[in-house]
Amino acid sequence: MHIEGKGHSETRTAASHVREVAQKGYRVRKFYGDGALDTAEMFDTLHRTGTEPVIKIRKNA
Asked: What is the value of pTM for the model shown?
């Protein structure tokens, strides 16, 4: 993630980290995040890796 808005989004970076950990044989039981991570990509990744999402849903969702 880049501080000036360049590079990958926060969601893409977090999803990538969860996938990498799962591919190495670790299990993430729960994933906590704020409304910025309330995206289909994040929920799909968590579902595929068997991780329980604990993500605050955005008010305008």
From this structure: 0.81
Give the span between the Cα atoms of 7 and 51, in whole angstroms. 26
Task: Find, among 61, 34, 31, the residue nearest to 45 by Cα.
Answer: 31
- Strands annotated E in 1-61: 30-33, 52-55
Residue 39's region, left for phi above 0, alpha for psi from -120 to 50, else beta, is: beta
Residue 12 and residue 39 in contact, taking contact as beta carbons nearer than 8 Å: no
The tokens of 31 are what?
A: 């994933």
Three-state DSSP at 33 gives: strand
The encoded tokens of residue 33 equal 């995040």
The tens digit of pLDDT for each residue in 29-43 reads 999 999 989 999 999
For residue 39, the SS3 value is coil
